[in-house]
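Late entry, evening session. Most of the bench is empty. Finally got around to the prediction I had been postponing all week. Sequence below, unchanged from the version circulated by S.P.
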Amino acid sequence: MSSKDITLSSGVRQNLLSLQTIATLTATTQNRLASGKKVNTALDNAVNYFTSAGLQSRANDLGALLDAMSSAIQTVVAANNGIEAITTTIQSMQATLMQARQDASWQSTSYTYSIAATNTGTLANITFVGGSVGTTAVTVNLDNSTVVTTGVPDTVDEAVAAINGTAALQGHVKAWNDAGQLRIQNISTAALTVTGASAGAIDASTNTDSIGGNTVRLNLVTQYNLLRDQLDKFAADASFNGVNLLQGDVLKVVFNEMSTSTLDIQAVDVNGNPFVVNSINLGISSLVNSNLDSNSNIDTMLNGLRTSLLNARSLASNFGSNLSVVQNRQEFTKNMITTLKTGADNLVIADTNEEGANMLALQTRQQLSITALSLANQSNQSVLRLFGG
């Protein structure tokens, strides 16, 4: 016998339908309370369900891009750290050159002047080679007809004038009268050889004497080159996750899920051309000892370092601008994800207060329906009294 073969009264059937409806609504409400959503499947509300899923998917895609943005930010920060270290290094190199520029620790030797009266003409020659004079010897005749009468050896003052008046020696060798002695100064970091001096005396002989170089400037050459080497190492080590913007790498940052909004980050020069950061491209050459022989050379190198420093600061400014863009996009993306998730939740989330009230109302209706069903059954049972004793 099926349920269709059972005949129920109109009142009982009505109460049964009411209980079935309450049971369905109770199950739905319980599901909403348990999941926190009013739309759990497409059957609940197809439009809201798929719209919410789409918004949630986009939020998840943007969330994945946030990780890439965070990595990009750290890559730019690493490059900027390298630029800051390079900038500091260039400033240290400037300080090294300034120290050399201010140093005048040139070595000199004071010679007794003993040119004999018989040492005239070519017999009164004194020759300089080495130092900043170079490998080509420069000879000064101390029986100089432009200073005194030919055939009479120069005095100390006349010898000073002859040496200082020789164009090939200017800026390389300096002489002066040191209490009656001839003092010769070597304006170089390398040793100067003087031919025509022996036992601390200028005697126009074939003997030689050596005047040492400026050891202070010589040590500063080594210091400068060490700093230059560190500059290249800073550039080589400024990488993050295998990407080094200072070595010419290009970092592409994607800002939206369609990849239609991107930013290529790369080191560029002041003209916007790709730039690999190293000492050579910054115009910083290694020094040789003779570079610090001349103050004018040092001034030229200082001007070059100023240009290098401006280029480094331009790179830092460029990285700073790129970093600002990525950080702004990161913040925008975070806000966008929040907006998308909020919109998705609003379409499917359940109001637990409302659903709780619904559950309480359904429980009340269920109890009332059970009571009504009982009353309907009592009405049906009244016919049995006709057969009572």
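Two things to note before I forget:
The longest strand covers residues 134-141.
The chain has two domains: 58-102+218-344, 107-213.
Will write this up properly tomorrow.
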